[in-house]
Amino acid sequence: MELARHWRQRNARYRLEGSRHRSDGTVAFPPREGAEWEPYVLSGLGEVLTFAVVHQAPTGHEGEVPYVVAIVQLVEGPRITAQMTDCVASAVTIGMAVEMTTRLLGDTGADGLLLYGYKFRPVL
Amino acid sequence: MRPVYIAGTALTAVGEHWERTALSLAAEVLQSAMTASPQQSIGALYVANALGAALGQQSNLAPAIARAAGLHGCETLTIDAGGAAGGLAIRQAMLAVASGMYDAVAVVGVEKVSDVLDERREAALALTTDGDWEALHGVTLTSQWAMLMRKYMHDYAVASADFAAFPVNAHTNGVASRHAVYRFAISADKVKNAGMVADPLSLLDCATVADGAAAVIISANPHASNTRAVRIAGSGVASDAIALHERTHMLDLVAVRMATTRALQQANLTIQDVHALDMTDPHAICAVLMLEAMAYSPRGTATTLAMSGAIQPNGTVPLALTGGCKARGDMVGALGVYQIVELTAQLRGTAANQVANATVALATCIAGIASTAVTHVLVAE
After folding, report:
1. What CATH fold (topology level) applies to the domain B5-116+211-219?
2. Across the interface, do B138 and A54 touch by the CB < 8 Å criterion?
3. Out of B147, B199, B201, whose CB is closest to A50?
4. What's the angle, vertex CA B292, arms to CA B110 and CA A47, rounded to 5?
5. B81-106 pLDDT, tens digit each
6. Predicted ipTM of the assembly
7. Which site in A94, B82, B87, B303 is 20 to 30 Å from B334, CA atoms measured?
8. B118-207+232-380 has which CATH code?
9. A-chain residues within 8 Å CB-CB of B136?
10. Where do you find CATH 3.40.47.10 in chain B?
11. B156 neighbors B299 (Cβ within 8 angstroms)
């Protein structure tokens, strides 16, 4: 059930915590390691750079089809890959303004974990 | 470094080999390739296999194949670099022979994917994406190409119908390709009307992932018989971010450009010198971005190039001569070895869709969204 794998990502998954460079202010997501980086919580605001509608899903996502995966350009600079939620696939467009929201990402099985984390929805 | 040649080659029909294991497919092609080039002193066996461990069959396949083929005790190595595994195995063999370490090295590419259902295969293929930051969110390799296709259509004002020339050409070529999975033609209308796998990618613009095995003997001595000698004149490898969102210019397959430039430089040739080529082409958008990365076509124009007929066997950039990943099939880790077997046949003048007077061939295979790219340039002497 890979408990540690998901636990160590908790700050990034739950509150979109990335990193900011201490001297030049560059913001990074996923978080970076190293003394020159400090934790930095992103706003969760951005726009859809591109997306696809998945009809043939991998193991663990079979029950979700069709679902939209997107690359979102975040306002702080980094790009992020995530699912779209709270809207139908036909409503998603390139350039659409979106915001981060926390949703169930998956369930690792009977003895496993409920994985929560970021998805993106149209700005309310 | 001394010259390195392709000696014996062999491949199996691509398809669903229900009665066969990866080991039996691999051992058979290896023995065929060795029979085709006797008197080669094989020092090592390099095996390309991307999904054996992920699909729960077998890891570290190489020693089992060596034993089954009678190469007792020889050095072995299993390479699992996704769809680039075959190309990397060829490269390692070339380096071992060029350096003088061995006079001959056997390479086998093998993949067995038909034992599992679609969702497990999708999950296994998604292992070449970024596990924590892409695959966890339900991203598949197909959906990544679909995202690139949508961005390409948006940025260059290209319609989805404009991509159809690629699968149509692949299927047309598949008819004469004896080892192809699908040996029938399809129309552009049929591509347009097919169901969606990852919108905007339809089923008829998606690779047929299938079982297969191919083998090549890489040697310091040209083929002993009276066929034309085929030399590996250039070899290049490059890497890029595995996560698509980390790339500054998503539509630029940097690793493909770098690997191809390196291979052509080593061969002292240019892309215009190439007569026949094969590339990882699971979807038209992949072929489009690779053609543009190789500078065959300016950015945003490769669909126009395809519609002009240039990618057909009698065109200037003949693609998917054995049917491509769509009609011949995509054997993932074995693909890069199939490419070398198929293009060697082109250079020896014995291919099914033969390009007239072909003396220079180029093969490129990639892992994932070209996070690894491998290019080889073959020259007939």
Report:
1. Peroxisomal Thiolase; Chain A, domain 1 (3.40.47)
2. yes
3. B147
4. 95
5. 999 999 999 999 999 999 999 999 99
6. 0.97
7. B303
8. 3.40.47.10
9. 105-106, 115, 117
10. 5-116+211-219, 118-207+232-380
11. yes
